[in-house]
Specification:
- This protein is mainly β and 230 residues long.
- The chain folds into two domains: 40 residues; 182 residues, Sandwich (Immunoglobulin-like).
- It contains one helix and 13 strands.
- Strands 1, 2, 6, 9, 10, 12 and 13 form a seven-stranded mixed sheet that branches.
- Strand 9 and strand 10 form a beta hairpin.
- The radius of gyration is 25 Å and the shape is elongated.
Length: 230
């Protein structure tokens, strides 16, 4: 058994206090150094660039019972500056009435395709984030994680959250190896929960966060979709 005298015990305590302080100071110092040298890159407080919304609207077709109406329409929003350029397109594929299969389960709705590209000449693209803002209680969004309908280039999928209890569903994609050019494409269903009795509205927004070589910036590109009752 080791016996500690008072002097030895006090010395032991002081050494462990010093070690504990170093265990905090050194990692924090390393994190600061990594951020300054570019080894660890993360957006701190990006500058926000918010664009006006691009708009698309339609009136629900009158169908006797069930069926689908092909639409194949596109709405686009884009942004460009001296370093970055980005393109956001929502393709509206078809309108479904009382469709019994997934993802409508007897309700009406639209199939939409979301397509985003981002390029920078300096720095890198950090992330592409898609957000859906719906009228409360009137509709839901269902996204596909099937690889057959997802196309990714220089990004990885982090989250596709479309649970019904989430107020704003979203999909997150993060750049791999600090890319200068990346792309994300996936598919979703906008499902209407009313009985052809309400106008529907949804804002789909692309947020592109990028590092321009000096600061982080975040471009916000909204697209507003509206569906009216006959």
């Amino acid at each position: 058994m080791i016996k500690w005298g008072r002097g030895s015990l006090e010395s032991f305590k002081k050494k462990w206090v010093s070690i504990a302080l170093l265990s905090v100071v050194v990692p924090v110092g390393l994190l600061v150094s990594f951020r300054l040298t570019g080894i660890l890159q993360e957006p701190l407080t990006p500058e926000i660039i918010e664009l006006e919304a691009a708009n698309w609207n339609m009136t629900r077709p009158t169908l006797n019972n069930t069926g689908a109406v092909p639409l194949d329409e596109n709405v686009v929003n884009s942004y460009e500056d001296s370093v970055a350029s980005m393109f956001f397109k929502v393709g509206v594929g078809a309108y479904y009435e009382n469709d019994s299969a997934f993802p409508f389960w007897g309700y009406d709705g639209l199939i939409i395709r979301l397509n985003a590209t981002a390029r920078v000449t300096k720095g890198f693209v950090y992330s592409l984030v898609f957000k859906f803002a719906l009228q409360e209680g009137n509709a839901i969004v269902e996204t596909w994680e099937d690889p057959d309908v997802i196309e990714l280039y220089n990004v990885r999928s982090a989250n596709l959250r479309d649970d019904w209890w989430i107020e704003e569903p979203y999909a997150e994609f993060y750049g791999e190896n600090q890319p200068k050019d990346c792309r994300a494409k996936f598919q979703a269903a906008w499902v209407f929960l009313d009985e052809n009795s309400m106008d529907q509205q949804m804002s789909t927004t692309l947020e592109v966060t990028y590092f321009d070589g000096t600061v982080y910036r975040r471009a916000v590109l909204p697209i507003l979709l509206k569906v009216s009752t006959p």
